[in-house]
Amino acid sequence: MGRCRARQEPNRAGTTILWSSHHREGYGRLCRNTAIVDKGRIVRNGPKEEFFTEPGGLERAYLAATGRSAEHAAVAAR
Q1: Is-contact 53 36, C-beta < 8 A?
Q2: Rounded distance between C-alpha atoms, residue 48 and residue 75, angstroms
Q3: Could you give the CA distance from residue 65 to residue 43 in angstroms, rounded to a whole number?
Q4: Full-prediction pTM beyond 0.70?
Q5: Is the dihedral of CA 57, 61, 45, 19 positive or negative?
Q6: pLDDT tens digits for range 28-75
Q7: I need a surface site. Which of 13, 17, 56, 72 has the fewest CB within 10 A?
Q8: What pLDDT is stored for residue 46 in this prediction?
């Protein structure tokens, strides 16, 4: 059984799965909701579609929710 499918079974049964990832591929198939966590606190939460249909997508949503600048994100990615 693939890793993604192994995670889908408990999720379908109602188990919440906390998945921390920067990769949208598996996340997009598994998750219904997205939360942006900053310094241990949820700063934005909602259906995943809200994050990917906005201009700038998830990165822009992250920057807006945390009050950080694009320069901060570029430095953190190095």
Answers
A1: no
A2: 26
A3: 6
A4: no
A5: positive
A6: 667 778 889 999 999 999 998 888 787 888 888 889 999 988 776 555
A7: 13
A8: 92
d(CA 49, CA 15) in angstroms, rounded, equals: 21
Dist. CA 59–CA 18, nearest whole Å: 19
Task: For 36, list phi and psi in degrees, rounded to 5.
Answer: -100, 125
Buried/exposed code over 4-42 (b: 16+ C-beta within 10 A; e: otherwise): eeebeeeeeeeeeeeeeeeeeeebeebbeebebeeeeee
Structure tokens at 51: 């994050």
Spatial distance between the Cα atoms of 47 and 31, rounded to a whole number of angstroms: 9
Give, for 29, the enclosing helix (H) or strand (E): helix 24-30
Whether residue 7 is predicted with pLDDT greater than 90 in this model: the reply is no
31, 48 in Cβ contact below 8 A?
A: yes
